[in-house]
Design a protein that fits this description.
By secondary structure, the chain is mainly beta. It contains one helix and twelve strands, in the order ββββαββββββββ. It has one helix at about 40-50, and strands spanning about 5-10, 15-20, 25-30, 35, 55-65, 70-85, 95-105, 115, 125-130, 135-140, 145-150, 160-165. The chain has a five-stranded mixed beta barrel with strand order 5-6-7-11-12. The longest helix has 9 residues, at about 40-50. The model has no long low-confidence stretch (mean pLDDT about 90).
C-alpha cells in the first residue's frame, strides 16, 4: 500500500526546505547524489545525539558542487533519520537507516542537511506549489524504512563516490 508523507516547505524559501526537527532543516536536492550535513561534526552530534551518529574511520567524501572546487570531508552514519510531518500530529513517516553522509562546515548553506535524489530512488516525490495553501514536498512511499549505503570509488575505496537507497522488504 502506498502512503503519502507531506512536508511543509518553510515560508520564505524558494527551494524545498522543510523542518527536519525542532532545530534542524533539510533540503531535498534533485541534482545531488550525496547526503551532506553542512553544519560541522559538533552540531551533527548535538542535533542527533552521539548514540545515533557514527564516524566512519578511514573513509572520506571528495565533496564538490558548492562553488569552490572540492574538499575532502569526513564520512558519518546517521543510524535512523526520520522524516515526518512536523505539524498537525502527522503519523506518516519515512525512516532512512544507516544514512551515510558527508560532513562539512558551511554555516551559510540554505539547510543543515541536504538529502539527494538518490535517497528517494524507491519513492515518488514532488514539490507542490499550486493548488495548496502552503508549498509542500509530497513523498509517496510503499515502505517505512529505507537503507542508504555508500558506493566507494573503484580507483580508491577510501573515498565514497555516492550513495544509493534500498529497502529490506
Amino acid at each position: 500500500m502506498v502512503s503519502l508523507l507531506t512536508l511543509e516547505i518553510i515560508t520564505g524559501f524558494t527551494r524545498p526546505v522543510f523542518q527536519l526537527s525542532e532545530d534542524a532543516t533539510c533540503l531535498v536536492d534533485s541534482g545531488a547524489d550525496t547526503p551532506v550535513w553542512t553544519q560541522g561534526a559538533e552540531r551533527l552530534m548535538d542535533t542527533f545525539g552521539e548514540n545515533r551518529i557514527q564516524k566512519v574511520e578511514g573513509k572520506n567524501f571528495l565533496l564538490s558542487g558548492f562553488g569552490k572546487g572540492y574538499e575532502v570531508v569526513d564520512v558519518y552514519i546517521i543510524k535512523d533519520l526520520e522524516l515526518k510531518d512536523m505539524k498537525d500530529g502527522g503519523t506518516d513517516r519515512v525512516v532512512f537507516k544507516n544514512l551515510t553522509i558527508a560532513c562539512t562546515s558551511r554555516p551559510t548553506m540554505i539547510a543543515d542537511l541536504i538529502l539527494p535524489a538518490t535517497a528517494f530512488s524507491h519513492m515518488n516525490y514532488k514539490v507542490c506549489n499550486i493548488g495548496v495553501e502552503y508549498p509542500v514536498v509530497e513523498i509517496e512511499h510503499d515502505k517505512e524504512e529505507y537503507y542508504v549505503n555508500p558506493i566507494y570509488r573503484l580507483d580508491n575505496d577510501d573515498f565514497v563516490e555516492r550513495v544509493y537507497s534500498f529497502s529490506n522488504e
